[in-house]
Amino acid sequence: MASNQDLPIQLDTITDGVVMRPSGDIDLSKAPSFRTQIAEVFQEKHARVIIDLSEVPYMDSSGVATLVEGMQIASRSGSKFILSGLQERVRSIFEIARLDTVFTITRDLDSAERA
Amino acid sequence: MASNQDLPIQLDTITDGVVMRPSGDIDLSKAPSFRTQIAEVFQEKHARVIIDLSEVPYMDSSGVATLVEGMQIASRSGSKFILSGLQERVRSIFEIARLDTVFTITRDLDSAERA
Amino acid sequence: MTPSPDIQMRLKSQPKLLSSVRSMLVSLAERIGFGEIESGHVALAVDEALANIIRHGYDQREDESIELSAWVITEPSPGIRIMIEDEAPQVDPEVFKGRDLDDVQPGGLGVHIIREVMDTCHFERRESKGMRVIMEKMLQTSTSNDESTPNGHSIP
Amino acid sequence: MTPSPDIQMRLKSQPKLLSSVRSMLVSLAERIGFGEIESGHVALAVDEALANIIRHGYDQREDESIELSAWVITEPSPGIRIMIEDEAPQVDPEVFKGRDLDDVQPGGLGVHIIREVMDTCHFERRESKGMRVIMEKMLQTSTSNDESTPNGHSIP
Ligand SMILES: Nc1ncnc2c1ncn2[C@@H]1O[C@H](COP(=O)(O)OP(=O)(O)O)[C@@H](O)[C@H]1O
Ligand SMILES: Nc1ncnc2c1ncn2[C@@H]1O[C@H](COP(=O)(O)OP(=O)(O)O)[C@@H](O)[C@H]1O
Q: How many angstroms is it from C97 CA to the middle of ligand 1?
């Protein structure tokens, strides 16, 4: 079951950066893999990193913490870090953590590429 | 939780009978309610009773047993008894029980009304 | 020696709890790598075993206890082992043979279903009181179990 | 005297088992009558508590044991009570206060989330060893818990 600790993430290149599209629940078992893959993406210096969460039905605080870290790396490296496509249940945890106004969150990918 | 033992079933009248459309899993907790409601429908003497299972994602042998009883009541009273709209997982249990050829099973409601 | 189970569940003998056990098992089986249909089959087998204990073993009494243990198997190949134990009066394990399906009847399907969807399945008396069933299903094997179950039906 | 739990689960301290526990709880909560979002919140609270035990209590060791007990509450109104017990070193229950959220940081969210989504939540030392958390959520009450939690945050 070792390979099941990997979070599958699809990577797409856009004009000024990259879109990461993880799929599946992001909990304590997947957050480490999520963190590693975000760090890898930031080694490439993108002007814009979009995390498309439309395929993530569930996230707990370990996933949220990973995204806060991503946001902090982005602000240090001067990149835009944008979350998009949050399902209602996932949006709810950002609200509970009062992070819904701290992150740039867009409804869909289109808006994320223009934000 | 008493009311949660009731299986919600929508009833629709058709030319020569009735369509029963239960929704939700049918297991040991819901089979008694399913049996009662099938028996009630048969008290009305319909030429055709269609069980539309399109809203049933799961059924175990207690649900299957209830349908076998329904088929037996139907054959005694000279009614047609037709299952329709089985989801793949539900169809699979009929195959395991080797009842997929014993019941009249149609793909959708349209075919069930003509079967 | 058997290692301790990865997940153990003790539940009251209430039909309304069956859906929670199924959900747990579907999720566990998917996590092990079983596909959607096969994960559903694992849950189905357990549901049938629990329903039989509630109906036959405990005569529908809802305040009795059932214990389920699940092991995630990794060697020699991935799979799941499930043990279910009750405290009901002991019966001859021969009753779990399953009946001839050619005779269409409302009942008598549960044991057949368990044997069909799992690779192996073994009913026995527990040491003190109650019955025990142990079932296994391995990844990447066929669901047909003609030879591997002690009293296996031959499914065409 | 507390009646015996309707469902009890004992699991190894493995992150990969969390999804099975969540599935079980979503199903149980829905069965009790909670809506989709609220059932998800019950599972989220438990997930956070288990993740904290694995990370802080057991320091990520995967061979330790965690016990979860769930009661279906019917009187005076429907709801769910969940108790989670570990065998980790005991800590001052004050650490479960949760931090000030105005300071944006990657960590420190779990306890806050539990207190926010459940009606009540109480951390304590167990009699012999380990910690215990007991949480409750009732149907048809708001998820805001300004007054009902011992160390409750005031959520605007
Ligand atoms: N847990 C059990 N305890 C005692 N007897 C059982 C148990 N499970 C099954 N049986 C016996 O085995 C028979 C076959 O069971 P099954 O195939 O599930 O069909 P059904 O339950 O519909 O009769 C039952 O009729 C019952 O006599
Ligand atoms: N089960 C536990 N055992 C011991 N300490 C804990 C436990 N859960 C939480 N804590 C302590 O409470 C603090 C706050 O927990 P939490 O809000 O979940 O944030 P985080 O886990 O991200 O630090 C933790 O940093 C830890 O010191």
A: 9
